[in-house]
Amino acid sequence: MSEIPLSHPRYASLLTREKVVLGVDEGITGLPGLVAQGRGEAFDYFLGERTTLPGDDAERAAVAMLLLAERPVLSVNGNVAALVPQGMVDLANKIGAPLEVNIFYRTEERVKNIADLLRRSGAKTVYGEDPDAHVPGLDHERAKACRGGVYDADVVLVPLEDGDRCEALVNMGKKVITVDLNPLSRTAKTATVTIVDNAVRALPNMVELVDEMIGLSREELEAVLEGYENEAVLRRSVALMIEHLRG
Ligand code: PTJ
Predict the structure, then answer these.
(1) In the chain, what are the domains?
(2) pLDDT per residue as tens digits for the range 46-61
């Protein structure tokens, strides 16, 4: 990684960018991942580069949904693997869920590199290298999924997802949680729970929330979800961006 001085006012943002660049060098992130990162940076700038109240509400709802799930699965793509591999593995291990490498611009080499990285980070079960099912309604490569993994899940966490695949998963009857800094994206509007936050902040926060919420009863977890409205969270996130820009 290139040397970014700790004193640089944009240290955290530059470090995040470097992780994605390194991900490309290591065959983990696809080149289009750099474009996605740039788009995310712009929205994060509007948001004030912090976890907002609606972001935190969505993270709580997401954790409640994952703890209530019968077959939760965490999906990992090239950007997520570069940015928060340990956060995804820690979350998976804490809630007892498998991970599945599920990438948009699929190459078998990149799938293997990501799966190896997750295993090196302590993942117990990683699906994705040998897909044996298809998500209906998507064209061939993007539809690949695994039985026991995303295909059979009742709740899927798909950070930085593409709108089409998010919609196809919802159409399969799954509850879909996404992390997307763009509250206006099709994914953000289609998912069951949309976390408008940077994945580098959202995942560690969710890991901590599992510790805080794991002792709650089913009724208490259900109450968290009953009070949650995704459209309202998106509206509050957009309002905060406008307020931040005006301020
Ligand atoms: O590894 P692959 O082949 O699966 O490709 C992954 C990307 C992300 C390239 C692919 O899924 C893609 O093209 O995604 P999109 O359609 O560009 O959507 C990515 C969304 O994530 C955009 O709305 C970005 O604003 C948002 N985003 C980017 N970086 C972050 C982010 N959201 C949260 N945290 C980030 N760090």
Answers:
(1) 53-246 (3.40.50.12640)
(2) 999 999 999 999 999 9
